[in-house]
Structure formats: C-alpha cells, structure tokens
Hints:
This protein is mainly alpha-helical. Helix content is 66%, strand content 0%.
Amino acid sequence: MHCIKKVFRDLSSPELLSRCLHGKTQHCKESLNCVIWSIIPKTVFVQLGTLKTGVYEFISIYNQDLITKLKVLDLLNIQPGFYTCRALQEADHARIRKAEKAISRRTKEARIKNRQLKCRQEDHLADDPSNPSYGSGMY
C-alpha cells in the first residue's frame, strides 16, 4: 500500500499537474512504452529474451543514436556496407531536424492555434441545433 501511495503522491504533485494545464498533456508517442512497442509490437507474442533485446536496442538508440547499430554489428564481426552507414546517419540527422522543428516557437504557436481552431469548430457544431451529433434513430 505504501508503494501505491508514493506513486499517487508523485503523480499528483503540483509540478507535474501544472504541466498538464491548457491542453499540455504528455504525448503518448513520447512515452517509453510506446517506443518499445513500436520496436516489438504487443500484438505478437515474443519470448522474454527477445523483449529484453528490444529494450536494450531502444535504450542504446535513445542514448547514442542509430549509429549504435553499427557498433553492435562491429561487435558481431559483421562489416556494415556503405549504404547501411549512410542510411543510419541520414536517419539520425532527420530525427534531429524533426525534433528541432518541433520545439521551435513558430511550430508551437501554430499547434496551439490549430488546436484552438479545432476546439472552436467542435463547439460551434455542438451548439448548432440543426446539426445534432446524436439523435434517436439517426444511425
């Protein structure tokens, strides 16, 4: 019970809750589990060893980029080709560019503006009596 109380206290801390104000919630794609499940899908049964390998792969990629795969191949005495090295480097650069774009001020402002516009449109549709979203026998 003490473990649950500690987790509950941590999750209800004012610092964490303040980050969830104004539509700022944690994005599911940023969570550790989601990334691991993208490497090893939950819909396919795998042995514990395979799951551990997938987690290790994710952690190494997270800590040292995709170039880590080249180090693993080298440890296995497999010589990666030119295009393998190039593709991994380009994927790393693309990931970094995407992250830099996502944190730019203009991009954040555009996301907020789009979210507000979508909310206003949904509110307008919900308030319009000539366009009910649900009614008896509609579907």
